[in-house]
């Protein structure tokens, strides 16, 4: 009995140590998750900045200036071989009366385009071109090519995207891998709200419709992504106006 009692403090000490390690591990996991979403938002900003910094390979100015929403998925990876599915996480933002909304965490899964991606991590950019596409994104779950029409987007800052047949699509899609940037067919892929990362980013779950419609204030970690979106959408709009003015001036001179 004496031996049992003397061994009790040691057991309690071991139990307490275990509990502290468990709780500490939990805190570390939470910190890591919060760090991951911050890194993902920052990576999304860098992807958009690097793509738009190359005029001959960038998203056309007309597409950016008229965009209703912009979504970026940095480093999407394959989850199967050959024609299997793919999975990635990123963020989306939409235009509101007050400017671009706070970013909503999203995931993209599926799609029969494994071979086209070459079995590696790729960066994806999706541009919602009209109100119908925006409503699909607000629904927090839709399938490209089924619920919303999608097409590989035209490339080149000066591309005449407004006359391209692809502009009839609700979502224009792009990929970047090994330094190459081009439109990509994402038909069959499903976009959903990432509920776990939404909780991490905002402290509690908020429907993507509320976030993307401008009802939520962006957090500090969202600044890099929103800054990049604002910069290139405004820059593209100004460039489009400048090009239109030059065209009018040329036409007048020729007359």
Describe this structure in words.
The protein is α+β, with helices and mostly antiparallel strands. It has one domain (51-242). 45% of the residues lie in helices and 22% in strands. Strands 1, 2, 3, 4, 5, 6, 7, 8, 9 and 10 form a ten-stranded mixed β-sheet that branches. It is globular.
Task: Please outline what is shown here.
The protein has 255 residues and is an alpha+beta fold. The protein has 7 helices and 10 strands.
Rg of Cα set: 23 Å
Q: How would you describe the oligomerization state of the chains in this entry?
A: single chain
Bulk shape: globular
What structural category arises from helix and sheet content? alpha+beta
Count of individual beta strands: 10
- Which segments are poorly predicted (pLDDT under 50) over 5 or more consecutive residues? 1-9, 11-32, 113-118, 242-255
Percent in helix: 40-55%
Profile the largest sheet.
Answer: 10 strands, mixed
Portion in strands? 15-25%
SSE string, helix = H, strand = E?
HHEEEEHEHEEEEEHHH
Residue-averaged pLDDT: 76
Our count of helices gives: 7
Please give the domain count: 1
The end-to-end distance, rounded to whole angstroms, is 110 Å
């Amino acid at each position: 009995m004496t031996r049992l009692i003397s061994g009790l403090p040691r057991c309690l000490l071991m139990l307490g140590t275990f509990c502290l390690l468990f709780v500490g591990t939990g805190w570390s996991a939470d910190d890591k998750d919060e760090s991951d979403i911050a890194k993902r938002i920052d990576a999304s900003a860098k992807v958009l900045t690097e793509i738009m910094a190359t005029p001959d390979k960038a998203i056309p100015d007309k597409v950016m200036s008229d965009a209703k929403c912009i979504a970026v998925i940095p480093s999407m990876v394959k989850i199967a071989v050959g024609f299997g599915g793919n999975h990635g996480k990123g963020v989306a933002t939409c235009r509101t009366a007050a400017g671009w909304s706070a970013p909503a965490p999203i995931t993209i899964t599926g799609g029969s385009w494994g071979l086209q991606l070459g079995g590696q991590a790729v960066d994806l950019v999706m541009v919602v071109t009209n109100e119908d596409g925006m409503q699909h994104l607000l629904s927090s779950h839709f399938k490209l090519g089924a619920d919303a029409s999608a097409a590989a987007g035209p490339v080149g800052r000066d591309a005449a995207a407004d006359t391209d047949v692809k502009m009839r699509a609700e979502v224009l899609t792009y990929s970047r891998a090994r330094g190459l940037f081009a439109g990509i067919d994402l038909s069959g892929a499903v976009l959903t709200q990432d509920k776990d990362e939404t909780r991490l980013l905002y402290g509690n779950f908020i429907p993507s419709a509320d976030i993307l419609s401008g009802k939520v204030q962006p957090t500090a970690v969202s600044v890099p992504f929103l800054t990049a979106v604002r910069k290139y959408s405004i820059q593209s709009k100004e460039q489009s106006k400048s090009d239109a003015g030059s065209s009018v001036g040329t036409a007048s001179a020729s007359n």
